[in-house]
Amino acid sequence: MENVDKEKLCLLSDAEQKLRCDKVKAGMRKNGVDGLLVSDNADLYYLTGRVFAGYVYISTDSDEPYYAVKRPCHLENRRMVMIRKPEEMTRMFEGESGIRPPRRLALEMGVLSYNAITRLMKIFPGVEFADATPVMAAARAVKTDEEIAKIRFSGVKHRHLYERIPHLYQEGMRDIELQVEIERAARLEGCLGQFRVAGGDMELFMGNLLVGENADNPSPYDFAMGGAGMDPSLPVGADGTIIKPGVSVMVDVNGNFTGYMTDMTRCYAVEPLPERAARAHQLSIDICAELARMGLSLIHI
Known about the structure:
It is built from seven helices and 13 strands. By secondary structure, the protein is α/β, with parallel strands linked by helices. The chain is elongated and about 75 Å long.
């Protein structure tokens, strides 16, 4: 690593990071905690603009975060300590540049394992603990202008992908074959291929494609769409159904072009589609349009 150029740990501008940290600290004060420690990839990305192995520590007594980094080793920050194991992060509280240890520390209890949580608790004896998950969720729920710009960019890329889907279909294809072609096109469009899904009952690859009666197959996951899947080890999505005339094709492939997820579902069909199915599809469009109208009317109130 000696020949690797040093790189700033935080990729956010000072103003953007302060805006996000201020939202987190407002939630900390509301929940009565003076220290917050995160290591979940989504939270690390939110607070620094990058993912790394380590921790971000936020104190209500400090304007800037502190960092404990395991990997990569070429990152640098004046408030950073390099560590090999979590127990070494207490060096953040030592020396002239250190900060006072917390009295009440929030940990990501909603996403960390029991073993990880108990290990962190042992590092901070005599400290009272709280859950950082609702604090981070509330801060991340209201997006900054920079976050919205990333989501818009991803949305445009996602739309371009969906415009290509009818041209990817070939007669006689199975659902899984069309899905693979869509996923390939997504990667070439710039999709990162990684989707972080919160919740223990949620796991999926790049998306879901359902053809015909497979859409009626239930799934154990907390998704709106089911499907039998290709194997009982992942019972969701395409099951090998041949795409024939008269069946509908529902595509729900995720988009991640910037680290911010976009979700888009579209229905296609190989004509002729039964008139009843066409009416049901139009009804769903009308419902979405009405909900959008109702939402806009609330904004103007």
